[in-house]
Specification:
alpha/beta, 3 domains, Serine Threonine Protein Phosphatase 5, Tetratricopeptide repeat
């Protein structure tokens, strides 16, 4: 990408105002010495005023390991246009002369701090695990937006984090977009293609893919309520529940079948139950509780 060039002399300030004319010196060339964050903003932009102070604070805290260049797009629209900036605030991180990361809009101060610290080369291991736990809890509670925000924050710190990739795929699946979920899983590193978290989402996608082939869960539920001994209807209900992501209730119905007849339909209920466990994930409460109940049935 060719940027607007100029003869501006590099400034050693950690935080400074930039311009189109000085972009090559202040950002591209300066980023060969230390990462440079570019904050595209405008005086009329409310979110820009929210983002600016914590971003400056986080950059100054690195003591020069990361620098910040603030560009008012009303006065200097050239580089922003070349980068395709369509809304502000827009933040880009440059390293070794090229853009390597960034984000759009105002984000929480905690995420700003993590973004800057990662550029400064800080060890982010201790920061990632709490974010993953928070995102997983949000997803469990049905807070898709919160889960997506958490997993996105992890991927900003570690773009190949397989738990975050699988988490984002599960967010997409929960939101009813299995195609996007499949696309997200393709970003998992090849050596992690069989990781349990990735395999779990793939299993969930397989179950979801049967949605059209299953009956209506409400009708099947009524049928089972009227005749609890109809194991075929109960199995079809479990399939329908699995397809729409209700793995907990699907598990309960499959366990009920196994309790009635362990070898029903050549072990179809047990085979389906194992698929449900895989889709739920080995550490999920659905799997842990279901395996305990299954053991109690089989060894009673």
């Amino acid at each position: 990408m060719t940027f607007i060039d100029g003869a501006a002399t590099p400034d050693t300030d950690i935080v400074k105002d930039g311009s189109d004319q000085g972009f090559m010196a202040d950002v591209v060339e300066a980023s060969r010495q230390a990462p440079v964050i570019v904050d595209f903003w405008a005086p009329w932009c409310g979110p820009c005023r929210t983002l600016g102070p914590p971003l400056e604070k986080a950059v100054r805290a690195t003591g020069g390991a990361v620098r910040l260049v603030k560009i008012n797009i009303d006065e200097h629209p050239g580089v922003a246009g070349q980068l395709g900036v369509k809304s502000i605030p827009a933040v880009y991180a440059f390293d070794q002369g090229r853009p390597i990361d960034g984000f759009m809009g105002a984000i929480p101060e905690s995420q700003i701090k993590l973004f800057v610290e990662r550029l400064a080369g800080a060890d982010m291991t201790a920061e990632i695990e709490p974010l993953l736990e928070q995102a997983a809890e949000s997803l469990k509670l049905g807070d898709i937006g919160g889960a997506a925000q958490g997993y996105t924050a992890v991927l900003q710190l570690d773009p190949e984090n397989v738990k975050a990739i699988a988490g984002m795929a599960r967010v997409a699946l929960t939101a009813g977009d299995p195609e996007q979920a499949r696309e997200i899983l393709e970003h998992a590193p090849p050596e992690k293609a069989n990781d349990p978290d990735v395999a779990s989402v793939r299993a969930a996608l397989e179950l979801a893919g049967k949605a059209e082939a299953t009956g209506d869960a409400s009708d099947l539920g009524l049928k089972v309520a009227n005749d609890p001994e109809d194991l075929q209807a109960r199995f079809e209900l479990a399939e329908a529940l699995s397809a729409r992501g209700d793995l907990e209730n699907a598990s309960e119905h499959l366990l009920a079948i196994i309790e009635k007849d362990r070898e029903w339909n050549e072990g179809a209920a047990r085979a389906q139950l194992l698929k449900v466990f895989e889709a739920a994930g080995p550490m999920s409460e659905v799997t842990k509780s279901g395996r305990r109940k299954l053991s109690a049935i089989l060894f009673s």
